Amino acid sequence: MRKFALTAIAAAFALTAFANTSSKAAEGVVPPAMEWSWQGLFGTYDRAQLQRGFQVFKTVCATCHSMRYLAFRNLEGIGFNEDQIKAIAAEYEVQDGPNDDGEMFTRTAKPSDHFPHPFANDKAAAAANGGATPPDLSLMAKARPHGPDYIHALLTGYEEEAPAGVEMADGKYYNHYFPSHQISMPPPLYGNDVEYTDGTEATVDQEVLDVTAFLNWIAEPELEARKAMGMKVLLFLIVLTAMLYAVKRKIWAKIEH
């Protein structure tokens, strides 16, 4: 019986060690911490950077990835005016209907429409991408540990050749920060993938920083409003505390005398 117990304990330790190892492998490498404009108590989004990031998303990312929670009119939040939003929406067609004949039809998108999916369905998306369905990017910055740091690291973490001893599966690319290090998505950015309207040089690093900022805004568009509300609450609590302290001193001053 004692021998059985010792064997069971040893097996449990082995399983725990294996689970920890597997978990660490699945989590991947911790990405380096970056400095972002929206971090900190007084941090805000850089509207120019967000617009550049939208250019990168629209030109590169949107060819494979959907953005199902983003409506064209939401782009007002990154500084586009009504006419610009209408012009951007007019570049797309969306499915609508049914019409009076009971048939679906396509029409030019309006500001109230959401960004159309680049593929008809997930099966079509997988078929066009080697069997892997490109994930929706609406909440990617919140869905992954380390959020924007992970996105930035992933987009800059490709290596031309896998380390010695690492056998790559067909159709996979080595990425230092992807959990299994083998990712189906080829390197998406090479530099000069877009021509920025504000004249900024479109280096790889610049494109990665800009699109990461845009994806974080998509996931947390209320971040600035939340911080502003937090500041108001803090100021209210400070004033309330001072008032309560003054009332307390006045009341106890009468009692003590």
UniProtKB/TrEMBL annotation:
| Co-factor: note | Binds 1 heme c group covalently per subunit.
Pfam families from the entry?
Answer: Cytochrom_C1 (PF02167)
Source species taxonomy: Bacteria, Pseudomonadati, Pseudomonadota, Alphaproteobacteria, Rhodospirillales
Q: Where does heme c bind?
A: 61, 64-65, 185
Name where it's found.
Membrane
What is the originating organism of this protein?
A: Thalassospira profundimaris
Q: Which protein is depicted?
A: Cytochrome c1
Cofactor entry: heme c
Q: Which GO terms describe its cellular component?
A: membrane
The text of the family note is: Belongs to the cytochrome c family.
* Main localization of the protein described in the UniProt heading: membrane
Domain Cytochrome c: from-to ranges: 48-219
Q: Name one GO molecular function term.
A: electron transfer activity
Stored InterPro entries: Cyt_c-like_dom, Cyt_c-like_dom_sf, Cyt_c1, Cyt_c1_TM_anchor_C
Q: Which UniProt keywords apply?
A: Electron transport, Heme, Iron, Membrane, Metal-binding, Respiratory chain, Signal, Transmembrane, Transmembrane helix, Transport
* Signal peptide (residue range): 1-19
Spans traversing the lipid bilayer = 229-247
